[in-house]
Amino acid sequence: MKGYWxxxxxxxxxxFVSIRYQTVLIFILFVVWLIAMLKWNRLTxxxxxxxxxxxxxxxxxxxxxxxxxxxxxxxxxxxxNLSGKIVSSLNITPQMASFVLKEQPSALKTQVxxxxxxxxxxxxxxxxxxxxxxSVCRLNGKLRIxxxxxxxxxxxxxxxxxxQGITRQLEVxxxxxxxxxxxxxxxxxxxxxxxxxxxxxxxxSDTTSAWLKALVLGDDxxxxxxxxxxxxxxxxxxxxxISGLHVGLIIGLIYMLLIKTGVTTVxxxxxxxxxxxxxxxxxxxxxxxxxxxxxxxxxLIVLTKISRNVNLSDVLxxxxxxxxxxxxxxxxxxxxQLSFLVTFSLILSGAWLKKSNALWHQMLCISFxxxxxxxxxxxxxxxxxxxxxxxxxxLVVPYFSFFVIPLMFILLLIPPIPFISSGxxxxxxxxHRCFLHLLSYIENVSFPWINGEFPSWAQLLxxxxxxxxxxxxxxxxxxxxxxxxxxLITVVxxxxxRPYISPYGSLTxxxxxxxxxxxxxxxYRQGVFMIDAGAKFSFxxxxxxxxxxxxxxxxxxxxxxxxxxxxxxxxxxxxxxxGSVAFLLNDxxxxxxxxxxxxxxxxxxxxxxxxxxxxxxxVKQGQQITLAGQAFTILSPMxxxxxxxxxxxxxxxxxxxxxxxxxxxxGKETEKKIMxxxxxxxxxxxxxxxxxxxxxxxxxxxxxxxxxxxxxxxxRNNRYGHPHQEVLDLLSEHHIHILxxxxxxxxxxxxxxxxxxxFSFLP
Amino acid sequence: MDCLxxxxxxxxxxxxxxxxxxxxxxxxxxxxxxxxxxxxxKKCMRCSRMSPNEICPDCQLWQKKFAGDDPLAxxxxxxxxxxTMQQIIAKWKYRGDYILGNAFKTTFRKGFQQYFGKWKNPIxxxxxxxxxxxxxxxxxxxxxxxxxxxxxISDSLSRTAGEKQSKKNRKQRLSAQNPFRVDRPINxxxxxxxDIYTTGTxxxxxxxxxKENGCPKVAAYTLIRG
Lengths: 763, 226
Prior knowledge:
The complex is a heterodimer.
Chain A: H1 6-21, H2 25-39, H3 45-61, H4 71-75, E1 77-86, E2 91-92, E3 96-103, E4 109-115, H5 121-130, E5 136-144, H6 157-162, E6 166-171, E7 178-181, H7 185-203, H8 206-217, H9 225-233, H10 237-240, H11 244-260, H12 266-283, H13 288-306, H14 312-326, H15 334-348, H16 350-355, H17 359-382, E8 384-385, H18 389-413, H19 418-445, E9 449-450, H20 456-474, H21 478-501, E10 504-509, E11 517-521, E12 528-533, H22 547-559, E13 564-565, E14 567-569, H23 575-578, H24 581-587, E15 589-590, E16 592-595, H25 603-608, E17 615-618, E18 624-627, E19 630-636, E20 650-655, E21 658-662, H26 668-677, E22 685-687, H27 699-705, E23 709-712, H28 725-733, E24 737-740, H29 741-744, E25 747-752, E26 755-760
Parallel strand pairs in A: 4-6, 12-14, 13-15, 14-16, 16-17, 21-22, 22-23, 23-24
Antiparallel strand pairs in A: 1-3, 1-5, 2-3, 3-4, 5-6, 5-7, 8-9, 10-11, 10-25, 11-12, 18-19, 19-20, 20-21, 25-26
Chain B: H1 16-20, H2 30-35, H3 57-65, E1 75-80, H4 83-94, H5 105-116, E2 123-126, H6 131-137, H7 141-147, E3 152-153, E4 157-159, H8 170-175, E5 180-182, E6 190-197, H9 201-212, E7 218-225
Parallel strand pairs in B: 1-7, 2-3, 2-6, 6-7
Antiparallel strand pairs in B: 4-5
């Protein structure tokens, strides 16, 4: 098996991909390949049998996708008493503390959460003290099924927890609701880690402690979200996660300290590292990347003791198999996937990398391989890719390896000596702030590829051509390498121009709860429009929160590869219609804002946004505007009223063989005025006014329009009782088909030419 | 994976090209491979011996002997019989390291395509050993080589007991009695396969018996030109 361990490891990875994409194609190809290799005397029977068994065993062993549960099950929660064993460490973020409980005797895994915003310092400490890994506990709380996604592109929390083997959540209000006894030895390490985290926070400034916690102790909660997403977009997340780089540095540091100072021999230092790495693994938060690196480190040391020639690919593959056997859910972890993908590609490139003599050239090659290897994964998870990240990594990686990470270790290890530690603290803060400024400056002047979906056929082709390219490079067949590179880029380009050659358009009524947000995408990406972009309301400071924008609107637009919006129609200023507009202006290029003259627009706020090129178009009844070839007829408002709802922008347009009427929150009064002004008005699809409130949708109005479909955007079990039963009765009386977000999630009308069909995201 | 001859561990790291096509099994290590010398450059068009003449003096003698009607149309060989090769052959043939023969599988196959690719359905006949010799060695090296080839093998040639060729000198070899007989006549083109072409006597003995029994054309394919 020596030199062949990567084949059963790849078989296990293939089993995972087969499960994810629900295909047997990979298995068939793999078996055909194995048999061919056996026949051509390139593999012996042992690796072939081991690999096929590995594929089959892991196919049965890995978690299979699980159909998301219906939304009515996730809405309710019930009071419950659970008992079981704590099987994770306590994870504390600014909002909540959570851990995983393995129930006894059912062995079901439940995520237990405390919302710590409302808890006092003593209560939080009580939680920290009670929650110990290995404890057997009884808990009181509200049990529920985690919420699922109801929009295309939205993060599916239910699926995410399920991929960790967790099917339920228990919300516990206060530490008094949990009774625990006992602990396992793991808790000692957890507690030590907690102590180090707290100590770091006490000694150092916010910036320094945030980076120290992330880079040495594997806890990145204190790093600002903008920085995390900046690192993500630039393919630098591997620096935030503790990885081979850190572990390599630690081993180097230990060797230097122990051997140079004469404390032990080389042999002794090796033993020390073998014992230390597993402990460090836990102290560093046991993220998949640090586990990969630590297992590889230990294996390398052990194997070089046994045998002279150790194959790195074997070491990596055995580490892979050990990790997935230990925890089958780890394969779904994006950090795990990226870590192994990058390391494996670099090991495969070993011979090619050795050919270059210049250090900078080698670093460029390493950066190139790493970024190319993860491009599809990056696209699938983050919908963006930065081509410049290949260059940036060359600059940033040395900064982290030779400055930031060693300094962080030093800061953790030295006792708080007045001048020295605080001096280093200030020095680091200063330099690092400059670095972050530089990074965000580069981010601002460059354009990421927001690529949207990266379909499975493209992933297959991409990796096929990448292997071809690397084979040609390794064999120094530069002409063929160039050709493969072109093919590789063609695949990416084909994915990028897909929307521009697609004759399909769509209108999507996003499910943002109690609020409105519509996205209209014209065929061939001729234009993208939004009609309202609501947000949730924060009761603390009466401002819009960005949760809907980030989780639903931005996620959807990124998934579709949209960066430019031709126009946003804002019906009126209520938070549930306009709340996310400011966020959109910041991240997207918005050409036009279309509002009524009575919209109290905060011009200053708009000018503060990233591109203040946005044109503001004020329209009222009787006007027609055409943007990106799409005509919109404005039906209201005509005059200012005191009720902001009655000032709603109402407009008529047609696409996909249907005519559409968007009404904002307009009530019966406005409807009357519209009917007077346009006695012959009809529409095939009516966006019901005010989320289906009984103050809108007058019977006469409904009768006159003669609509076939009614769109209702309302929150599940909302406090206003929208949509009202009498409105629903009226609609069914007129045989109008009702499509509502609170029951069906996002509603999508997909059209080609004059034909189209309505779909709902939920079955 | 170890080298078939020197048993040094071969340290082949997995790279991009060996990802899809792993390196061949049963091979010699780079060092041993480099010690073998392939026939290159100018060679005798009849017997493959490296020689400045188009037809080497040996073959000219053969032509004279058969008065222009040499039963063997041509011989193609791959390797030169240098010191390493002699040692490998000794280990393989005389010391019974059967598996070592696999080291020549790919090269022998490739050479066959190169030299005989254009022949239509040739019959491959390995030079047989006498029964006592087969008993002594346990396997017939020519049979093993023939089995590497993508062609039909015939066993219609057999050998009467005789002395080892390698124990005779040139003169003895040249004047020896023909030790072969044909059990079933073959009317297709035949390629004789053997490990080594030294004087060409054995192969010509076999070729003439075949031709006498109605075979239209006989050539030889040998691993080494001695």
